[in-house]
Amino acid sequence: MIYYFLPIRNRTQNTVEYTAAIDDAYSIIYDSNVHLEKHELQYLRQFRHLFWFPDAIPQKYVFGTYDNSANLEAVGNIIVYRMINSSNGDYVKFVQDGDDLRAAYGLHAVKRHMFERETWIPTNREKFLRKWKNGRYLNCLGLNISNSSDKPVIPDHYVNNVAKFRDFLDSYSAVPFLFGGTLLGWYRECSFIKDTTDVDLAMKITSLDPRMLKNMEKLNDLKLFWILGKINDSLEVSVYSANIKIDLFFMYETKNFAWVGGMMISEKKKFRWVYPLISQICTGDLLGRLFHVPCNIEEVLEADYGNWRIPHPTANFTWYKSHKNVHEAGYWNESEWDDAYKWPNACHEVIKLDSSHRFTKGFPIKTDGIRGHCQAPHAECSNSILEVKFCTASLASREPIRLTARGGRNIDIQEMLRRAEMEKVSEDKAYNAIWVNGEE
């Protein structure tokens, strides 16, 4: 019989009972030669609920409990952590006298008779130890940087969508962590940066399970948008959820530094962002959900932004040149391109512009390429509606896709789309287009 809970609850009756046969994932054989001294066993009898964390600390017996009244003083080789669930049940904190504070999400346990009593133990020792090792809990700063009157582009509740992607990656033993502007927003402001338009995560390439990439195409709530780069060079994945993009960067490590890659698709140009090595991963709470973060947060942020305490408006921040640590890294050649640029679920749409330079979002279509072109009745598209066909990859990649209008003026299609996306444009609502090298 298996008792399963996610996360660990403070009442055993809240667990779900399964009578299905135990599979390999739950067939954990713990050492049968575990022995405690008589006074240590006596000490453990005070706890109503007891969880054993084997191998958490070498040569120590580490336990956890939800009992608030219990005495947690160390006895012999025993160390006991107090366990506290987050308010929304997403994760559990492990608190010990002193500075040791840890947290973990997605824990599973079974009940066994050990230490002369009923004791909960992890169903998967390797997974638990990975979460414990990467579980040191850090607090964000909560600096008052953004204008409180600004309406955020990404609502707070979107953190639940990000947590779904977190759980998907976790199911493949990955350790994703907040990255880029999302890491900055968490650490500096304990939130998403108000004018940011996407979410950034990263994970080390060494923990990639190739099945994860294949199964991303089967996700329901998260839509795989594209896969950029290759496993051995500059891999990056983007998914969409509720019309907001989540970028997952893969971090490569050398002896002295780490880096992630990116590309300017229109030119097949590679870029690299260089970081100090991230030797330890910690955890932090973002809007009620637990995420991993680099333990050396400030070093990582300084590499990206320099003085990260000074806000940089997203509108003035260019992804391929504004970072302090970005470098050009050559080009993809033609023989590599089909493997380095895959967007299986990118959709195409139509933007309609009339002679007053206003537009509405159109309907999905099928077309080739990402360049806009004229489909109006008049050849020069003057005094008529101009339909611009584009691939949404141009929006997601943040590269300028421009259409030349009559008189030599250029329409920045990308900026129009970004504005439309932020304002949740409906088909019957129009907004001013952005004109480059001309008047609005």
UniProtKB/TrEMBL annotation:
Record's subcellular location: Membrane
Annotated keywords: Membrane, Transmembrane, Transmembrane helix
Transmembrane portions of the chain: none
InterPro entries in the record: FKTN/MNN4/W02B3.4-1 (IPR009644)
Record's keyword annotation contains Transmembrane: yes
A GO CC term attached to the entry: membrane
Membrane topology listed for this record: Single-pass membrane protein
Keyword Membrane tagged: yes
Protein name: Fukutin
Species for this entry: Litomosoides sigmodontis
